[in-house]
Design brief:
Layout: H1 2-7, E1 11-16, H2 26-42, E2 46-51, H3 54-57, E3 61-63, H4 71-81, E4 85-91, E5 98-103, H5 111-122, H6 131-154, E6 159-165, H7 173-178, E7 184-189, H8 193-199, H9 214-220, H10 224-236, E8 239-242, H11 245-255, E9 261-262, H12 278-297, E10 308-314, H13 324-340, E11 346-352, E12 357-360, H14 362-395, H15 410-423, E13 434-436, H16 441-449, E14 459-464, H17 479-485, E15 488-490, H18 500-506, E16 512-515, H19 519-527, E17 536-539, H20 546-561, H21 565-577, H22 584-602
Parallel strand pairs: 1-2, 1-6, 2-5, 6-7, 7-8, 8-9, 10-11, 10-15, 11-14, 15-16, 16-17
Antiparallel strand pairs: 3-4, 4-5, 12-13
Length: 604
């Protein structure tokens, strides 16, 4: 037995994704946050493969000089000698993994040949495809060449696993299997192409799921190449996986094959951990949100910030899929309930997504700038009063407080009065912070429902059609700080293969709402019984209609509004305490199982 163990070949893992060193969407978060846990296990036997975009790679890529002594370096040099753009280096994220990036422009001259092979060998039609698919096909071919060359020199002494994420990374996978390249392959779909397209326009998507013909639907939506690459990759990989049981049902219908395994997503929780500090961070960043709210609302009217709660939702703009429609309907109902009960609490709901806009609204920007002016003027008055009060108190023979107004120069009195006067307005606070290029579902609903930030409304809406970053002049916060400053994240998605946004709340100690149609919500219901007591609320969207789900969400939001400060603090403690469940060091085991199974299936 001992000799057998000693004779076992080492294993090398390649992880391939379009979003390696290329932040586009959620898969970037999956790969980047998982890196430390993967490097911890694989050490030098781990490498990520991705596309090379100079501007994006600039901040995250550190070159390695390739040499023939290093198997990866040897292949890099060989491909470079063939005129192909291949870059070898480290990815400058936690864990610093080795990465190889491929310049797709350097193989575009061969694109017709690549497309012909895809059709001849696998019946993947690439006629009249968009440029992104052309780029993906070029990337897939470069990955295929690299892995084939690597297996040629290493397969006899090393077991090789290649893990492909999504169709954008896997157009070369079918050809690797056809050529019988000695590599164990794993394919993960994070969201089926057809599911994302169909669900956005079909309110009964899940009820009719089993009736869809994948080829017909792919043709209807003009995504035949994408859907075929995705389907073939899932069917031809040694192991096919997805991120949730919810998406597994789609895979069965659209791929004709139920996934072998489900690989739930996690985060590098230690990156967010702030032992005994997350409550303080919540207070600190809530104060920054207070400043924005004062600048936005107080020129028109004011309310008690100590009785104000901040809710938010975020993600790509998919009005139905992300549950923005349900959230708005629930907010309208919540507003009515709070007004009927004559409650003095205010809820400010932020919609943070990305939509085309011209610029930040000039009035919104000016109002924020004038608040800064008021703050600066008050600071000068405070300094002047403080100095003069000290001198007066030291010189006084009486123990009464002198008239403080006499300590302020006329200049500062006039400046403060004029600034406040020009700041005030009779206009309603804007729902949208930017000048949109076109009206959309959010603005349309707010206008029709009357959620227009009237003084008497207990629920206010702020629609921020751009992602939040520290350079943002309205907040001056990055996204993670903004999340920490809020009280509740609201994500009742209709179509959400996994759902990172509620998970990002949990690891920062912020209670969250999800749905049983999201992979995350479904996973929570499987592993935890008392999730609601721990600050995770799951909306039933599987068996309830839209109106019932909206009423359930409105009830949950009202219950949260009625909590005492102590109850909310306790709930944040409970939420933060379960974050470790979602750390990649725990969830990596699912990936380990997939890689082991692929190696077993590869053997003849």
């Amino acid at each position: 037995m001992e000799n057998k163990i000693l004779a076992q070949k080492p294993t090398f893992l390649f992880e391939i994704a379009w979003e390696v060193c290329n932040q586009v969407g959620g898969i970037y978060t999956v790969i980047r946050t998982k890196v430390p846990a993967m490097v911890e296990k694989w050490d030098e036997n781990y490498c990520c493969l991705g596309p090379y975009f100079p501007q994006r790679a600039l901040a995250e890529f550190e070159p390695i000089v390739p040499t023939n002594d290093d198997p990866i370096g040897k292949i890099v040099l060989k491909m470079q000698a063939q005129g192909l753009g291949v870059h070898y280096g480290y990815w400058l994220v936690s864990g610093r993994p080795k990465i190889v990036l491929f310049d797709i422009e350097t193989i575009k001259s061969r694109i017709d040949q690549i497309k012909y092979a895809l059709w001849e060998h696998h019946q993947i039609s690439t006629l009249n495809i968009e440029d992104l698919v052309n780029q993906v096909v070029c990337f897939g071919e470069l990955v295929r060449i690299f892995l084939s060359e690597y297996a040629e020199i290493q397969a006899k002494k090393t077991e090789i696993v290649a893990h492909f994420h999504e169709w954008m990374a896997s157009s070369g996978l079918p050809e690797l299997r056809r050529d019988n390249v000695k590599i164990a392959t794993v394919f993960t779909t994070h969201a089926t192409m057809l599911g994302r397209y169909i669900a956005s326009g079909k309110p009964d998507f899940y009820e009719k799921l089993n009736t869809y013909d994948w080829a017909e639907e792919a043709k209807r939506y003009g995504i035949e190449a994408q859907a075929t690459i995705e389907r073939l990759s899932a069917r031809m990989a040694h192991v096919s996986t997805t991120v949730s049981d919810v998406t597994a049902r789609e895979c069965e219908v659209f791929f004709g094959k139920y996934p072998d395994l489900v690989l739930p997503n996690g985060l590098n929780v230690t990156r967010f951990a702030a032992t005994h500090e997350f409550q303080n961070l919540h207070i600190k960043f809530k104060e920054r949100i207070h400043e924005f709210v004062m600048g936005h609302f107080f020129p028109s009217y004011s309310f008690d910030l100590s009785k104000t709660l901040y809710f938010f939702t975020s993600g790509r703009y998919e009005f139905t899929n992300k549950g923005y429609d349900l959230t708005l309907e629930a907010l309208a109902r919540l507003n009515w309930k709070m007004r009927q009960a004559n409650m003095d609490t205010t809820v400010v709901m932020f919609f943070v997504t990305r939509q085309p806009f011209h610029s930040i609204n000039a009035d919104v920007l000016q109002s924020r700038a004038m608040l800064d002016e008021i703050q600066d003027t008050c600071a000068n008055i405070e300094k002047q009063v403080g100095e003069r009060l000290f001198n007066a108190a030291a010189a006084s023979s009486e123990n009464t407080l002198p008239d403080l107004n006499g300590f302020v120069d006329e200049y500062w009195r006039l400046r403060l009065r004029r600034t406040i006067q020009s700041w005030k307005t009779k206009n309603l606070p804007s729902v949208v912070t930017h000048d949109l290029k076109a009206e959309d579902g959010i603005t349309d609903f707010c206008r029709k429902s009357g959620l227009m930030n009237h003084a008497e409304d207990r629920v206010k809406v702020i629609y921020h059609p751009d992602f939040i970053a520290s350079t943002n002049p309205l907040f001056g916060l990055d996204y993670s700080q903004f999340v920490r400053g809020c009280h509740l994240g609201v994500f009742p998605s209709y179509y959400e293969p996994w759902g990172y946004t509620p998970l990002e709340c949990i690891v920062r100690g912020i209670p969250t709402v999800t749905s049983d149609l999201s992979g995350f919500g479904d996973f929570i219901m499987q592993i935890m019984r008392d999730y609601e007591n721990r600050g995770i609320y799951v909306i039933n969207r599987k068996t309830q209609g839209f109106a019932q789900a909206a009423d359930q969400l409105a009830t949950i939001l009202l219950k949260f509004v009625k909590m005492t400060l102590r109850e909310r603090v306790n709930q944040r403690n409970k939420v933060e305490s379960i974050a470790e469940v979602f750390d990649w060091t725990s969830l990596r085991a699912y990936y380990d199982t997939a890689h082991d199974l692929a190696l077993k299936r590869k053997k003849p």
